[in-house]
Amino acid sequence: MKIILSRKGFDTAHGRYPSPIINGTPLSLPIPDQQDTIKYSDLTFNNKSYFQIMTELGMHGYNPNSTCHFDPDLTCNALTNRNLDNDWRGTLGQMMQAQGHLNNQDVGIGDLFLFFGWFKETEYIDGKLSYKKDPKYPNGFHLVWGYLEISKIIQTALWDTASLLKSHPWLKNHPHVSREDVWNLESNTIYIGAKKLALRQNQTGFGILPFSEKLILTKADHPISHWDLDKLEQLKGLSITYHNERSWHEDYFQATHRGQEFVIKESEQAENWASKLLEQLADC
Predict the structure, then answer these.
(1) How far, in Å, CA of 17 to CA of 66, rounded?
(2) CA distances from 209 to 199, 226, 260 (A)
(3) What is the DSSP letter of 17?
(4) How many other C-beta atoms are found inside a 10 Å radius of the C-beta of residue 36?
(5) pLDDT digit string (tens) for 198-211?
(6) Which of 58, 94, 117, 192 could form a disulfide bond with 99, CB atoms 3.0-4.6 angstroms apart?
């Protein structure tokens, strides 16, 4: 099993605000995309739309018609009024250079994506959601917030739309399916989550991780991209794509600012590291 660290959600360039952790649950905000059709106001979390939550947190530059790239899709009830069936699975889409990188690393069925992104904890003050002040992480932190084990890989260019939606009707709204300009790209690929997780057979093969300090990658009192060596001890000596030996500093690991998918060398060490992160899981 290969472990892929996959950067997803708002960052300083796309979105410009940290995604919130609300009552112990990370809410990864999908990046803005004017070419997609899903709006932040279409997506819900705890009976509020993402847009309402973003407004409460003081995020400027968005309106009820702002659209986003809702991917990965790991929560069955996030998108209102969609047609769910008993075989609904979490999904991730990828294409172009990022997909080429996954191909070059022979990522395939049985491999595991661990999604990480930029987050801050929140709290309610006088009934209003606000970012919590945290002296250890004043600008937020990188957090592992979700996962998906690959059970099926679909290259959309090899399918016609009707056949794909007949066998996977819940993919109708996925941006890597609904956009015609993307559908016929040779690189356009959809990863379907497994029913059960190989590392923990009693859990689903995709989902959101409840917030825990053990899932924070950032070292306290350091910039966001400085990761804690204690959290990465089992990965020491393993190759991680887009990184090299110079990434390992004396007191932190420097996470690169480029790239989306970081593939860790296949090893028992990496599997054990991932298994420890997945000790607490939340089902759809």
Answers:
(1) 15
(2) 15, 22, 20
(3) S
(4) 19
(5) 988 778 999 999 99
(6) 94
Residue whose token pair is 């996962």:
147
Indicate the burial class of 248 (C-beta count within 10 angstroms; 0-12, 13-18, 19 or more): middle
Q: Is the pLDDT of residue 219 over 80?
A: yes
- What is the C-alpha separation between 196 and 268, in angstroms, rounded? 20
Tokens 């309610």 belong to which residue? 124
pLDDT of residue 281: 61
Q: In the numeric block, which tokens belong to residue 95?
A: 């294409």
DSSP helix/strand/coil, 206 = strand
Q: Indicate the SS3 state at residue 264.
A: strand
- Reported as a single tens digit per residue, the pLDDT across 243-280 is 999 999 999 999 999 889 999 999 999 999 999 999 86
Q: How far is 234 from 200, CA to CA, in rounded Å? A: 19
| Residue located via tokens 């290259």 | 155
Instruction: Please identify which residue in the block is written with the tokens 């009820």.
Output: 64
**What is d(CA 144, CA 277) in angstroms, rounded to the nearest whole number?**
8
